[in-house]
Amino acid sequence: MKRNEKIGNVLSLDPMYSPLHNKIADRYKGRKIAILSSFGLKHYLPDFECLYIETIFKRTNLNVTSVDIELVQQINNHFTSFLKKVEKRKPSSSELAYMTKFYVYLRSFLIDNEIRLVLLHNDLRWQHSIAVMLCKEMNIDYLVTEQGLFRPITTIVDRHGVNANSRVKDEYLSFVGKGEDIKSYYSNEIVNSSHDSLYSYINFFRYLVFSKLGTFLGREARVVHKRHTFSEYIKRFYVHKCTSLFSNKIDLFSEKTNSSSKKLIFVPLQLELDTQFLVHSDFSKIQEVIDLIQQSFTELGLGDNYELVFKLHPNDLNKYSFESYSKITKANIDNNFLENVSLVISVNSSALLQVLSTNTPIITLGRSIYNFENVSIESNKENLVSNIRVQLSENIDMDKRRHYIEYLRFVYSIQGAGNSFSEKQIDRIIDMLDRG
């Protein structure tokens, strides 16, 4: 018998693009059921009985009330944020009916099948946000998975939510209050796979193939947070390998071409459709962020002493408008580059982790787990100018910053990725549920 083996039925909604959900469910004696938005996700859950949202709706008569519709209408998620910010509209009556049917179906399903644990990858896919609400209401354990902060060899598994929906800052304060020794969590485990491994890419390719098949079989959900396609990834590959993302009119900046003595204000940008941007910020367009930062830079008269340097996300295929004084860099964000940086401003880029190994002040323009004393401060359109002025002379307590980052690395993160999750790390995940 495995350590921490439990009794009960497990439900997985859309899983990680890895076998993690299957490994967690393996610790439970009981039925393993999945309700999926795509036929392509089935191969990540070989031990599960798989159902599909689309076929469920075709075969099941679901009675939806106006109260149900009103409740679902209030739930914020990636899909509704996309409609609001990108398409400038509310969900259509058919989209709202589709999501409400899932709410009605899942509410009964959880009871009828005596589900003890729900697994879901990212808590802001529309069906996952509904599941989280129901689990809280019905006192059912759930775990949210996400690619790790320290990529590509860590994973996040959280009992509440991920990113700004997590309670990691409160849990860290509790950890400090108890006087726990972070060194006892240090791990020398070897993770021999990653989110970017050949194994992961091959399995994601299989997912794309089977999703295409699912379209012909009528098993792909009509409402999805994002529909992955072959053309999207072919285009990404072409851009990375064959073309430049930037117009020749924009100055490319690197530490080698920076002959002035000016320090840098550095802005790593994100994808507009990223959850961090769509849901956890108040912006609708990346251009809005660029304009706000440039306006603040000009208002403060920083051009004599600082260079304003942007870095676009490597997967961003959009074009943006920059002022003539702004620079664009493709440089790696390493310590050599950061030596000349006086301030970093970002919505909530994963690049911030590299910055956090230095004493460079950080301003975030979104809700983030990094918004913590001596880690970063949260700003907005109204306060950015004053925040920049203060942060340019801010002294960071590196001991406190380092301690919080080590907590994220060794206590909050699961050491594993791809197909490499040790039994010890699965034990840690199950222990989360026992702690309540």
Brief account:
With 436 residues, this protein is an alpha/beta fold.
Structural class determined from secondary elements: alpha/beta
Describe the strand arrangement of the main beta sheet, using strand numbers. Answer: 5-4-2-6-7-8-16
**How many strand segments?**
16
Intertermini distance: 23 Å
Task: Lay out the secondary structure.
Blueprint: E1 6-7, E2 9-12, H1 20-25, E3 28-29, E4 32-36, E5 49-52, H2 53-59, H3 66-73, H4 78-85, H5 93-112, E6 115-121, H6 126-138, E7 141-147, E8 154-158, H7 168-177, H8 198-217, H9 230-242, E9 252-253, E10 263-268, H10 275-278, H11 286-299, E11 306-311, E12 327-329, H12 335-338, E13 341-346, H13 352-355, E14 362-364, E15 377-378, H14 384-391, H15 398-412, E16 413-415, H16 423-435
Parallel strand pairs: 1-3, 2-4, 2-6, 4-5, 6-7, 9-12, 10-11, 10-13, 11-12, 13-14, 14-15
Antiparallel strand pairs: 7-8, 8-16
Describe it:
By secondary structure, this protein is of the alpha/beta class. The chain has two domains: 6-214 and 414-435, Rossmann fold (3-Layer(aba) Sandwich); 246-409, Rossmann fold (3-Layer(aba) Sandwich), CATH 3.40.50. It is built from 16 helices and 16 strands. It has helices at residues 20-25, 53-59, 66-73, 78-85, 93-112, 126-138, 168-177, 198-217, 230-242, 275-278, 286-299, 335-338, 352-355, 384-391, 398-412, 423-435, and strands spanning 6-7, 9-12, 28-29, 32-36, 49-52, 115-121, 141-147, 154-158, 252-253, 263-268, 306-311, 327-329, 341-346, 362-364, 377-378, 413-415. It has a seven-stranded mixed beta sheet with strand order 5-4-2-6-7-8-16, sandwiched between helices. Strands 9-12-11-10-13-14-15 form a seven-stranded parallel beta sheet, covered by helices on one side. A two-stranded parallel ribbon has the order 1-3. The chain is globular.
